[in-house]
Each structure stands twice: as structure tokens, then as C-alpha cells.
Amino acid sequence: MTHSAGSPAPPILVVEDVHKSFGGVRAVAGASFALQRGAITALIGPNGAGKTTLFDLITGFAAPDAGAIRFEGKPIEGLPPHSVTRRGLVRTFQLTRVFAAMTVLDNMMLAGRGQPGEGLLQLIARRTAGQRVEGEVRERALAALHRFDLDGKAGDYAGTLSGGQRKLLELARALMTDPTLVLLDEPMAGVNRVLGSRLLDDVEELRRTAGMTFLFVEHDMDIVMRRADHVIVMAEGAVIAEGSPDAIRADPRVIDAYLGQARSRT
Amino acid sequence: MIEEASAPPSPRWHSRLPPAAWLALVIIAALALLAGVKGPVEAGQATINGLVDAGYVALGAVGLTLIFGILRIINFAHGDFLTLGAYVALMIAASGLPIWLAAALAILVTAAVAAALDKLVWEPMRRMQTSTLQLLLAAIGIALVLRYTIQFFAGSQVRSFGQDILSAVNLGPWHLGTLQLVALLAGIALIVAVGLGLRFTAVGKQMRALSDNMALAEVTGIDTRGAIRLTWIVAGALAAIAGILYAAAVGTINPNFGSLILLSLFTAAVLGGIGNAYGALLGGIVIGLAQEWSTLFLNARWKPAVGFAILILTLLVLPRGIFGRVPART
Amino acid sequence: MLRRLMMGTLFATGISLAAVSTAPADPINLTIGKLLELTGPLSETGPSQDKAIKLAIDYANKAAAAAGVDIKAADVGADVQGDPQAALSAARALVAKGASCLIGPSITPESIAIANGLTIQKKITIWPVGTSMRLRTIKDEGTIFRTVPPDSLQALALVAGIIDKLGTASGKLVSIAYRNEPYGEGLAKDFKAAWEAKGGKTQGPVVFDPNQATFDSEAGEIVANNPDAYVIIDYPDTFAKLGASLVRTGKFDATKLFVPDALAFSTVPGNIPAQAIEGARGTRGGTPTDTDAYKVFDKLWETAGGAEHFSLDANSFDSTTLCMLAAVAGKSADPAAIQEHVRAVTTPGAPKFYLTTLSDAFKAVAGGEKIDYVGVAGAFEFAANGDPTISRFDIFEYRAGKLAVLKQIDAAK
Amino acid sequence: MSILNADFWIGVGVIAGIYGIFALGLQLNVGLTGLLNLGQAGFMCIGAYAMGMLVVDAGWPILATLPVAIAAAVLAGVLVGLPSLRLRSDYFAIATIAFAEIVRYVLQNAAFAGGNQGIIGYDAEWRDFAAWASDRLAAIGLGEQMQLPLLFSIWLVFALCVAVLRWLRRTPWGRVLTAIREDEDAAAALGKNVLAFKLQSLAIAAALAAIAGFFLALNVTYLYPGEFDPTFTFFGYAVLILGGFASYGGVVLGTIVLWTLIEGLRFLDLPLSSGEVGSLRFVLVGLTLVVLSMARPQGLLGRRAEMQLRQ
Fold it and tell me: Scanning A42, D261, D286, D301, which has the fewest C-beta atoms within 10 Å of its C-beta?
């Protein structure tokens, strides 16, 4: 079922029969899917479906009890988060995580990859290279901030930003790591519609210009239907359906899962 | 709560048997092994001595673990609350009142001091949303104030309740001091009472809610101030009881004694899993048994080091202590 | 008020006497520094040291006044906190307040920090109560005097004391235990070597941490194998706990127990269980005559109220007295003058004076005589390094809670 | 005025400097990396003992032992950090204190380092140097204060350490540490090897502790296990929190304020017994700590804005 899309290019990420329990609670139970390169895929499902846990498993914040995860054809399950990121797979968090007591610019510059200045020995041994890279990282960070309309805030503490601005900063910061695949956990939550749609415009543009792949978790069905090329539906830790937005909209299992959720909520 | 999961995944057996049952099995197996190697008399006596140790430590550790688990304060002053309880009881008893009445009054006084400190120090700091570190500094300061105020009035020389610490209960070839037995049983009873109180009473549930999420508890209409104040009162009373039992059963104390056993209390609390009343007891038992059993093989001079080594080894296997939860996530 | 009046009268009489008998010398205003363990791990020892030094100053001031010797000592105190850095700072504070000699501190690392960091350079005498031989590894240039016998001598005394009881060392098993500190470690090591050299056997040592809650396992090990004697090197506060544990084993026999000077008290402290110590024997630096001085000291102690006896308080008392005598001999409160004249008041072969004749001692010293002052804790004929040469030790026994001297021995033989 | 005694205040300056260097390591760990290291006294102990043993047992020149002492402490930092840095911060704190206590008990009970008797006699070369320096100082009228050479050396090294740490803080390396303090998961998600950076932070703190231990040994001239009990670490924390979170200047100010307070109170003259004055002194120290932690929660030089942002 994971290879039903039949695209000629190999998938950028493959998740195969992944399991994860916490103290007896099965958070992810046999999830499998594949992500097409250059696509924008939405991951949906009711609360408690295991979406965030799945993100954690993919990005190394938790190790699966069983199953395989392959990024660019290579297994990454159980790797620490920083190794996963260095391979080009970056994520954001459901609750935004900015470095509050650092400036917005420092938040951005931190994320730049390959900085000699981050090594104690290289600080001395490669002093000039370090200073050059630092300059370049600064340029890139400022350019990115400009792109996201945050350049006016560069010198402010990130903790002073509004919720929406934090979401933008988190995305901009993630992009500083030069990723090929970006996992966004509820990028729209707490963001006003105008800003939210700016953000998604940016995502679409990045996909178009830089060929990046995106997987995002979202609850707003309108946005999912309008923006996603492909939709994966999770319930109770497993993938219960996937396909184009239109196909998903009509899938009875999806409706069931959501109705069940709605019933339990009342 | 990603941070929660960055700990290594718990071993599989963890989810099948409750940790306490595992611990009991390990202890029984170890005891059988020791009895085989060293003879049942020696092994049994070391075990009894270990349980006595555990009794002393566990009761003190409960208050510590409550404060840490619920309020996130590393209360470096907790040991000095033990001292306070014991000294107030000593001073009241010196005025001629019967010892049980002196003890009861001392428990009230210590609880009142704990409540007053909450009002004067901790609550204002909570309102200012002070960081954990600043709370640590305040706790160090309070510890110094308590310890040396006691010393100012009572002097630094050793004191004693003058209870009969010589009488012993003999169980076949084994023996333990009568007062040690009383302290041990009282400790276990109180810990169980605290554990049940946390689980079944309304206030207990509120306290646990605070420990899970202070902000959420506040939103859901829990009287957080009242619950916090009560936490301090309970912790203060428990500390006083621990201090009095310790002073009576050990026989001799000076104003430093509470601060000197503070590290053992922390060790027991952490080993058991921070925030868990039974954990404090189990942590105390593990440390106590390990230390006393070690004397069967090593010189007693290594006892303190053995306790700390056991703590580190346990944390390597169970990063959250024996009862520490690896929380489920959605 | 009345007391002050009496003191004043005494003082006035002293001055008038001095004016009559000798040429008027400059009055000596001596400040004695007390290095006390007031806080920290040894804080239980502070109050008794403080009291001992104060009693000594009071008593000697009166004795000097009665003799018409114009010296007036006062005390200043500072907290050494059981920590060498703090001890050094405390000593500096005392010197800043004018102290000419320093009584204490309790542990050898503190003494060494103070000597190296301050007192050697300023030629100020210090009078520590620590017994470690490590103290003598530094070049103190004659500034450190000890009135407590060093470990090596006392170990020999303990051996002699046990042989006295058991008849022989040969084949006899002694169980050794000590509180985990330099004092116990040093003494236990010396004792073990001395006992085994006499053909005896030892077990242990059982080494215990003073801060633990239970001593039952340790007690069990001490009484294991039913030894012929136990040597327990401890302080009273820990022994109160360990003693109870020993009794609870049901196998402990206090008459087999031998203790060193740190557990020697004229009256056993109330918190040490009688069954743990009644009939026990011990050693301490001995006096060559009857212990009248100790009785006077004990009476002063009881009358004053306050802190109970603790280990080595008599030694601090004696050190203070010697310092005042040396100041009179040197006719000055100058630290260097005191240092130079310590030996003049502890000269072997010179006329002996005791606490009971302190007034006469002052008079003799003021007259330029050399004397041999014998203190409460014994005679102090200082060796070249400033340690007592005395090899005479009391062997005592606790009877009905009181210390009774059985005999005296010469530990060097 | 006896309180103006130069010897005394030079001595206080020596202690303040030693605690200052010690607390710089804590500041790096707690203030800049978010590591609650309660085992700093253990690292100091290892550094000091390495120096003492190399001089006394192996006859090394004292200065040559300093790099080895630092290396020993750094190695200990890595060995302790590798397993324990995976723990949650409060458990890490207790694990480090357990480590420091184990170090102390091993040195007390094992035979190789002198046990309770400790190590003595390693400072001859230093004393020669100090005497030489004192002679030079005598030329400008400062020859009487024998601790001046030690004071100058300590504060010179202290200043140097502050300068290096302040520079490091502004480098990309320091930026990563700050990010880890703020949110280590986010830092990991951005490709930073959190464990490696924490290890480096702990190792540098251990190195600073070793330097502090080196000077402590020179000051007290006698090394024994009791000197390195956890109280040392707690007073280090008092210095750190008093001075201000995440501020190296705060450490300098904090150590001066704390030790002026603690030692200055020795001149408190009250009509009380020695024991009462001794107690009162620490009651006042304690009260000051409580009041300061309430009145100035960010510390003397800490930034309140940063503190609030972190909530």
C-alpha cells in the first residue's frame, strides 16, 4: 500500500511498520507510509492518533520499539536528533520552541550548519574560516528574516515575539539548516489566518524553487484540502488511509475516525 | 514534553511487572544469596540493620520528595526542619511536659514554621515567578537561618532525649533496638498514610494535580494556594516526626544532624523516584540494605560511598528512579 | 556588681603589693585568641573549649593579681568552622584584634594552614589540640606547642594498659575500632603496630562514619569473635550512639573496653550509656603527683555552669595558663617574647608549681626564676619540636561514672 | 581599627578569588548551559589531589602539575558526564553530588592518597617563589603581607578565566550552549549535538574547579578529604546566584560580596558568648541570602528581562 503511488522517483522517506509504546500505552502501532520527493503531504488524525509521537520517532527524539524508518534510502531509526537533522531532515514543534532569551538573529544564526566556530579547537585553529562563515551565516540569516518580514525584530529577544511571529521564526530557523525534508507540527496553530496563509505560501514557494519536501500536521481541513498534494490519515497509532485530498474527503474510514473523535469529545 | 522521552527507552520488563515487585524479588534473592554465603545470622542481622537505616531515612525523605515533586523546590532546608522538630521537642520536654506532648507540640510548631515560611518567602517568590535556582539560594539561606537560630538558643553541644536506647528486641539470633523498631514501624505507617492520602483524599488529588501541571491546576479551579500551604504543613510535620524519632532512637543529636543526613534523604528520594511517597520508602530500603549488606564484605568505612554508588548505578538502569514514570504521550 | 567590686579590690591590692615588692614594671595587657569550632562538623567541641580557656584566664588573672603580678589577660574568639581556609581567616581576625597567642584549633589541617599562612611569620604561638604527627612535618620555627600527647606515645600507653589488665599481649586478640578521622586513624595505626610487636593479635579496624544513623553493623563487627579487649578511639558524641549499639548486641563487655584520652572525663557525660563504659579502662597524659589540680579544675568547671566536659578541655585550659606565664616571664604581651619564654616556665628540673599554687608560680616567674609548671592534664616538658616529652600516662578506670586513676606508667619503656 | 587589618582582607581576597574561579565553572554549567552541576567540589578535589600527589610522590615541579591536574579533572568530567548527562536535570544534579561524595570517600578510605592524613609538603617551591616575590614587593612597601603573591596570582588567573569565558560566550560555541540552556530539544532539532556540548561545558567547569583546587591547596598548605565536602559547592552556588544568572561579572561581584559578608561578620562585636556570635554570624548570612533572593531574584548583575523570558 505504501508504494501504490507508483512514482518513478524513489520516496524521500519511508516509514515501515513502526511501533512505539510508553508504559503500556501504544502510541504508534504499525504505522507505514512513504513520502514523495517534492510533495507537500498533510498528516491528519484525531487527537491521540500518534502524529506527534511519529514525528518524534522520525526525527530521533524517540526510538521505535520495532519497525524501520529510511530517509534517502538509509535507515535513520534510533539515530540521535542532531544526526537526523544533519542529513537534511528538520522539524518544528507543536508548541513553538524559540530560544526565548536569545535574540531573533541569534536564533537564526544558531541553526546555520557547518560552523567552525562551534568547535572549541576550531575556534582557534580555524579562526579566519570561522569568522568568514560567521559572516556568511549572518548574511543568510538576515536575508531569511527579511523574507519572513522579521528583519525589524532581529535584535529583539525571541521571547518577545507574538505567537504567529514565533511560528514564522521557527520555520525560518529550520530552513537555515538547509533541509531537503521539513516536518511541520501544526504550523497554523495559534497563527492568524493572514500570517498562516503567508507561511503556507512560503512553503509552496520553497517546494517550487528549492525542491523541498514537506510533511505537516494540521487540524484545519480547509487548509489541508487546499494546500496538500497528498494526505495521510492516522488513528490509534496506525495509518488508516492515504491518498489525494479529494479521495480522503470521501473515505468513510476517515469520517468514522473523526466522528468517533467528535463523539468522545462531547 | 519531548524532553520526557529523550531518556533511554525503558526495558521491556518494566511494563510487565510493577517495579516494587521486581525490587522485592531482587531483595529476597540477594538475601538468600547472602544467607548462603555469610550464614543466616549475619545476613539477617545486616538486613535488620539496613531496614532500621531505611526507616530513619525514608520518613525524612517523604517530605523532601513531596516538596520537590509538587513545588519543584530543591529544599536544602529540609534537613534543618528535622533538627527544628527535634530541638523544639527537646526544649518543651525540658520544661517538664511529658515527652509525647512535647513531641506533639513540636510537630505543630514545625508545621507552623513551614507554613509561615511559605507565606513569607515561597509565596512571594512564586508570585514573582522566580527561577528554580533562586529558590535554591533561598533554601540554602533558610537552612542557615534555621540551623544557626537553633544553635544560637540551644548551643552546639550534643543533646539527648534520654530515652532508653539500650533495650533491644530479640528475635531468635537477631536483635534490634526497641526504639529503632518503633521508629521503623511509625515511619512505614506514616508513609503508607501519606501515600493513601495523596491517592484518595480530595486534597491529595489536588496536590498531585499541582505536581503534574501547576498552571493547569490553577485554571481548573483548584485552590492552589491552599493546597501548596498544606503541602508545606504536611512536609513540616513529617520532618518534625522524622527528627524526633531519629533523635529519640539514635540517642544523641546536635544542631547539625539534620543537615548532615540531608544527602541521604535526597539519595533515597531520588532513588525511589522524585514525587513518590512509597518511592522514598523503597529508596531508603535499597540504600539501607546496600550499605549494611556491604559491611559483610567491606570495611564499614565504605558504607557512605556504597550508598552513593548504588544511587548512580540505579539511575543508569532506571533514569527516573524505581517508581519514576516514563510518561505516556499523545 | 559585688563580684566586680571584689575583683577591683583584688586588683588594687595586687597593684599596691607590686608597688611595694618589686620595681614597677609596665603592665602586661595580654589578649588570648580562641580558635573555636563553633560551627561545622566539630561544632560540639566548641563550647567546652571556649569555657576552658575563659576559666583559665579568669583563674590566672586572679592568681596573678593575688601575687601582685601586673598582667591582665582578655580573650577574643573566632570560629574555625572545621575548615582550614576558615581557620586561617579566623586566626587573622584574632591577630587583627590583638591576640598574642592562639589556643586551638582542633584539627591538624587547620593548625597547619594557620601556621604556614600566618603565625610562623608573625612568631605567634599556637596551641592546637590535634594529636596528629603530621603537624611536625612543617617547619614551625618553634611556634607550635602541644599540651596533648602525640599519637605515637599514647599508642604505647594503651598497649601497656591492656597488658596490665590481661597479663600479657601474647596471643591476645584486640578488636580495634575508630571514628573515621585523622586522630583515630593515626592512633589506631600506631596501636596496631605496637600491639602486634608484643605478640598480640588484632582484628578490624572497624572504621565508622560519625554522621550515620545506625552503628549496629559496626558494633556487631567489633564484638565478633569474642576478643580479649576492644580499643575504641572515639569522641563522646559518637560514642553515645556506638555505645548503645554495642550494648544492644548482647555480647559486649564494657570491662574489656580501652579508650584513649578523647574519651577521658572526670565524670562520664550523661548521654553515654553506663553499660557501655562502666568498668572500661583508658589512658591519658598523666600527672606526676596526685591530681589535686584536676579536682580544682573540675570544681571550677562545675561552678561555672554551661558546657559539659568534652575531650581535651583540660589541655586548652593548661595551654592558656602557660601562655600567660610565658608572657609574665617575657615581661611583655609581644608574641615573640611569649614564644621565647614558654620553655622558661616548663623547665625540667626547675621548681614545680601546680594549678593550686599558680599564684606562687606567677610570683616566681615575675621574679625571673625558671619554673616547671605542671598543668591539669600533666607536666609539659616540651621537646625540641614543641611536643610534650612526658611519657607518663594515667591508666584509669570508670567506676560509678567517675574516672579513677589506677596507676601510672611510663609509655616510653 | 582592627577591622581594617590588611592581612585579614588579603586573606579574604584569596578565599573570594578561589571561590570565584570555582563558581565560574558553575556559571558556565548552570547559567550558560542549563546543567545543574552539584559535583564541582569533586572535580576540585581531583585537581588538588593530582597536584599534591605529583609533587609529593613523583617529585614534579609544582607548575608542571597544573596541566595534569586540569587534565585529570577534565577526564573525570567526561567520565561522569557521559552516563549522567542523559538524565533529567534534577536527577543529573543528584548524580553529580553522589560522584563528588564518592571521590571524597575514596580519598578518605583508600590508602593511595594518604587517607585521612591527607597530603602535605607540596608547597615548598611555591613558598620559595612567594618569598622571592615578597622581597620584590618589599621594594614598594608591601613586603609584610606574605599572602600578597598568592592574592595576585589568584586574581590574575581569575581575571584571565573571566576574559576567556566572556569571549567564548560570544562565539558560535557559546551561542550553542545558550541555546541548549534555553531549549535543548530545539537545539538538537537544529542539528546540534547536545550531549557533546554539555560534555564540553562540564569538562571546562571541571578544569576551572581544578584550578581553584590548585590555589586552595596553596592557601591551606594541607590537602585532606574533609576539605572537599558538598558545602563548598553550595557556597559556590551562593556566589553564583548572588552575583547573577548567566553573568561572569556577577561571579566576580558575587564572590566579593559573599565573602566580605561572611568574613566581615567576624568583627561583629556583641555582648554575647563566642558560641552565640558564631551562630548569629551564619543566621545573618542566611537571612541575607533569603532577602537578596527575594528582593533581587535575578542576582546583582543578572538581567531581569532574560529571567522573565525564560519562564
Answer: D261
